[in-house]
Amino acid sequence: MRSNRLRYVTQSVAKILIWIAALSTIAVMILILFQILREGLPILRLSFFTQSPKSMGREGGILTPIIGTVALTVVAIIVATPLGVGTAVFLREYTRESRISRVIRFGTDCLAGVPSIIFGLFGFVFFVIYLNMGWSILSGGLTLAAMILPTIICTTEEAIKAIPYSFREVSYSLGGTKWQTVTRAILPNALPGIFTGIILSVGRSIGETAAIILTAGSSLVMPTSLFSPIRTMAVHFYILAREGISMEMAYGTGAALILLVLFVNTIANGLLNRYIRHRS
Amino acid sequence: MESQGLHFYYGAFQALKDINLVIKARQITALIGPSGCGKSTFLRTLNRLNDLIPHTRVQGTVRLEGEDIYQPGMDVVSLRQRVGMVFQRPNPFPKSIFENVAFGPRVLGVHSKVEIEEKVEQSLKAAALWPEVSDLLHKDALGLALGQQQRLCIARVLAVEPEVILMDEPCSALDPLATLKIEELMQELKKNYTIVIVTHNMQQAARASDWTGFFLLGELLEYGVTGDIFTRPKDSRTENYITGRYG
Predict the structure, then answer these.
(1) Distances (CA, A) of B245 to A240, B236, B240
(2) Contact B103 A173 (CB under 8 A)
(3) Residues of chain A neighbouring B104 (CB-CB closer than 8 A)
(4) Contacting B residues, span 181-240, partner chain A, CB-CB under 8 Å
């Protein structure tokens, strides 16, 4: 047996290390936010949000990139959510562990690890060229959808897995069909988990650049349809900084991007809490 | 209901051997026996809930009103509505009391608000829960005491108008007072429903049931009127079990 003194020293050291880990994480986060917001916030005026960029983004605002970001994200979520939730329900409820389910799961796991530029290349070859959709909101949105699909499948599966087996038994024992069991006993209780997956996916869509430049282009012209090319805020930021057009505007865009993410997360959390309260 | 030559397998393991048992309508049948003897498995063959478990196999017949429920083409969904089930642990959905009871009728396609409200009130009254919850219908069901939750689960079953109610150790998570309430409720329910209850509690079987079956190692050793089983068991193993010498 070790002496008590040693055990107590170990415990104090562990406590200090854990505190250091937590504090460094917070420090890095604050440092990044501080840097971007310090440079960016002074740029943010109402006109920055309501005007389109002028002279390559040196002047004017970021209205078109905002629209681009929102449009691509919306397309991606609308396409990926039903596919992802459907796949997860299939894997969890409609098939037992089998070769098919293992192949699908292996496939999604691989998909999750593929770098986004590869998705971009696929989207460019398949949507942009082969399906002749060109650089467009649709091409970019579908590419993003493929990218976030694994996240939605995985979080939905986890959420379904966490639901007590008894919910299924009860639903069946009351004369529920499989579909009724899925839609009434399982999905409503898995919704908070599914929602988390969607929020993560929104974050990933908003922040993506490489795949989007290849599939949606980087046009600053106001889009008129799903087939118009578009530039997102992240791409705008990248081009402004990379090509030395205007660091000032780049930081402004970065700050706006951070605010957008905060805004989306706050709204989503609010909706989720309301849903949970409403149900009980 | 009755079972004839019923065998049940989990993979290669035979959990039930040649069970022949006639369950009398509008009576309470208790199934007793040590853990792992097959009594819960038997209960779950009666509403085919074992179908959900992979690698299981059934031989023999189970009849409900003369109809073999394992025949090909059997409508399992409506079978489960006719043969309701109350589980070991109270398991209300994390919804309101009202929505828990309304779940069954809604699943069965009742849409009219008035009809559902009537059904909910009726079922809660029949489960002797109405006076306690009539003001809390839209409160979270998980806020109820365990005994109340279990009666809520009974109300939820009653709402789909079953013919038979299967109870799988419904009182094992409850205190003696809550247990007593469920037993009183069973006496009330037996006027309209056939009840089969699995229990580990000898006294419960003795005082609450009309018929008792004793299971051991997957076999039905003895089955008869409860009074006879507990006072004049034919098999020495039954006697050993009910007198507490093992199990």
Answers:
(1) 85, 11, 5
(2) no
(3) 174-175
(4) none
Instruction: Judge whether residue A186 has pLDDT over 80.
Output: yes
B33 near A CB under 8 A = no
Chain A touched by B140 (CB under 8 Å): yes
A162 contacts: CB under 8 Å, gap ≥ 6? A190, A193
Q: Is the minimum CB–CB distance between B180 and chain A shorter than 8 Å? A: no
Does B156 sit within 8 Å of A174, measured CB to CB? yes
Q: Which residues contact A90 (CB under 8 A, 6 or more apart)?
A: A104
Partner residues linked to B64 by β-bridges: B67
Tens digit of each residue's pLDDT (9 = 90 or more) over B80-107: 999 999 999 999 999 999 999 999 999 9
- The CATH number corresponding to A47-279 among 3.30.2420.10, 1.10.260.40, 1.20.59.10, 1.10.3720.10 equals 1.10.3720.10
How distant, in Å, are the alpha carbons of A1, A2, A83, A145 from that of A13? 20, 16, 48, 45
Asked if the model's pLDDT at residue A278 lies above 80, the reply is no
CA–CA distances in Å: residue A232 to residues A43, A68, A121, B144, B192: 18, 5, 18, 51, 67
Interchain contact A167–B (C-beta under 8 A): yes
SS (H, E, C) B206-219: HHHCCEEEEEECCE
**What is the C-alpha R_g of chain B?**
18
Point out the residue among B91, B94, B107 whose CB comes nearest to the CB of A176.
B107
Question: pLDDT at position B161, please?
Answer: 93
B168 neighbors B86 (Cβ within 8 angstroms): yes
Write out chain A residues lying below 8 Å of B45, CB-based.
none
**CB within 8 Å: A175 and B78:** yes
The answer, yes or no, to whether residue B137 has pLDDT greater than 60, is: yes
pTM over 0.90: no
8 A C-beta contact, residue B196 and residue B31: yes
Interface predicted TM-score (ipTM) = 0.91
Nearest-by-CA chain A residue for B159: A174
Q: Number of A:B CB contacts under 8 A?
A: 65
Local confidence band at B246 (pLDDT 50, 70, 90 cut-offs): low
Looking at domain B2-36+48-242, its CATH superfamily turns out to be: P-loop containing nucleotide triphosphate hydrolases (3.40.50.300)
Domain spans, chain A: 4-43, 47-279
B 83-112 → A contacts, CB under 8 A: 84-85, 87, 89, 91, 93-96, 103-104, 106-108
Element (H, E) at B97: helix B97-107
pLDDT tens figures, B17-40:
999 999 999 999 999 999 889 999
pLDDT tens-digit series, residues A8-37: 999 999 999 999 999 999 999 999 999 989
- Please compute the mean of the pLDDT values over residues A136-160 and round it to a whole number: 95
CB atoms within 10 A of CB A50: 12
